[in-house]
Amino acid sequence: MRLGLDIGGTKIEAVVLDDQGETLYRQRYSTQKQSYDAFFHSVITAIDAARAATTYSLSIGLGIPGASATDGLIKNSNILVLNQQPFVQQLEQHFNMPVAVTNDANCFTLSEAIDGAGKGYGVVFGVILGTGCGGGLCVDNRLITGPNACAGEWGHNVLPHYHPAKDGESAQCYCGQTNCIESFISGSGLERQHAQLFSKHDKVPQIVARLNAGEEPVAALWERYQDQVARALAGVVNTLDPDAIVIGGGVSNIPQLYDGLQARIAQYVFGKQCCTPILQARHGDSSGVRGAAWLGAQRKA
Prior knowledge:
It is a single chain. The chain is α/β, with parallel strands linked by helices and 301 residues long. The protein has helices at residues 36-52, 87-95, 104-115, 164-167, 182-185, 187-198, 204-212, 216-239, 261-266, 287-300; strands spanning 2-7, 11-17, 23-30, 59-64, 67-68, 74-75, 99-103, 123-129, 133-139, 142-143, 244-248, 278-280. α3 crosses α10. The longest helix is centred in the C-terminal third of the chain and has 24 residues, at 216-239. The radius of gyration is 20 Å and the shape is globular.
């Protein structure tokens, strides 16, 4: 059996999957962030509870915000107490077994590649369009992470063909770079552009409601947004040319996102052609925790 934990800034979700990917156990906990010791203890508690709930031995996989650096310490996590901690090594010492850990976008991609929308495709690029703009890469159902743990981090490349006349004011990203893809096509990036144009701090659902109501200025913003998504994905096609691209996150649930997207991407692809399937994630919000479970099983094997 496979235990997966999806660790976020507010909650920890734990599931146990069987060989067919059926969920046999599910539990949620609040993320303890007041100190690293409190955080570590809460993860141990969640794992112990799952192990106690089944009579089978469990592999363990975790999805976290952040990545494990080459020195074994966690970096780039929005759970600040986790940064610069030897989290994985301590877990493995505590349980005396392998523990697989990667970021949440990688878990999403692995889940969708194994038994989600990307099932059956050799090379799958996973995209999360949510608060941020994450990504991951799977080849033959195995994650590619790279020596810098940066494979798939497309959101922190510069938006291709950026021009203020069509994309608005330059945007400073939290990573320290300017005009990152994430600053434009994440859900928060769409909200930022909307606020910039209309001086209204609407959230994505409100923006979509205005789009559906036929408001022409919002339709023009959406046209700009789709073009930005197409430019960003064309960069993936030109670099990697994956067999399929799977999109998740809150923005992936907007039907208009997919309208003519393949043709839009083709405008920016070398050769002006794009036959890459652009697919909506099958498992939705469950992809992260499911991917963590599959990752743990692969690590143990």
